[in-house]
Amino acid sequence: MHAPSRRGLLSLAAALATPLASPRPAAARPAMAQGGEPAWPDRSLRIIVPVAPGGSLDILGRSVARALTGPLGQPVVVENHTGAGSNIAFELTARAKPDGLTILVGSDPLTINPSLYAKIGFDPVRDFAPIAELVRAPQVLVVKNGLEAGDLASYRRLAQEMAGGTTLASQGNGSIGHLGGIMLGQALGFTTTHVPYRGGGPAVVDLVAGHIDSLLVTLPAAIEHIREGRIRALAVTGLSRSPALPAVPTVAESGFPGFEVVTWQGLLAPAGTPEPILERLHAETRTAMARPEVGDNLRAQGFELAAGSRADFAALVRAEAARWPAIVRASGARVD
Prior knowledge:
The chain is of the alpha/beta class. Helix 2 links the parallel strand 1 and strand 2.
């Protein structure tokens, strides 16, 4: 056997001194949790928003995504999945891997739709793990500039006098705006032609353009257009006036006491998501919402910040799932 050359020995020494190639830089590897398991999260998260950009759920989802990106150490990306009255987003989340990397911004349609649609691919209680209720907000009745209605009473007269009634849009079939519009018409004694949209954002755009007469939508989706004078607010559906629009009366004080339609919005994960992940998401979300740059901004847009534990939110979802069937039956609303 020949002795290795000096050049060969140098090459061998260099090879032994060089670390083995890694499939990714060491800095990109996830930290290790106790027990040697990779820490969570080890890659980006996605927040599923069931409406088009511009609506109140989208505003909330993007606010939360920005606030969580730093504390979680991974990007938090918003994905808008519209259609079928939000059922596409709900079913996508319900079927997602329960690893804490898919989070839904849910609201009333999650608990309304099982009573509204003949076929549904999820159960609002069984298929979701509530993380945190984030906000509540009233609906606001807004009209296009040029419509001869300066308050709720004149809107009622106009709707009664017009053949076929005015067009009253909502953020979608079965949405809180849709059912709230039916309830408003029943309480005030008028009929309208419902125009559904895929979210409050597109509906507001069409109202500003004058393509529809009126819209019942969650306040944050319309508040900037109201402030800028592009559309007019006639009434809000909470029992008290919104601090964000103190000059706008409630439906109740406009002559219809007891009328209230308020939406809830919060974060949910697929059922089966591990408890430690749910607890961390709850804690990080609560911390984020307490920051002035997050909470104050949401309040300025017409949201009312919610509090409470995961158990409180789970109880709300159960109560809402039990509440809506009777209301949907009474309204006569149905989507095939």
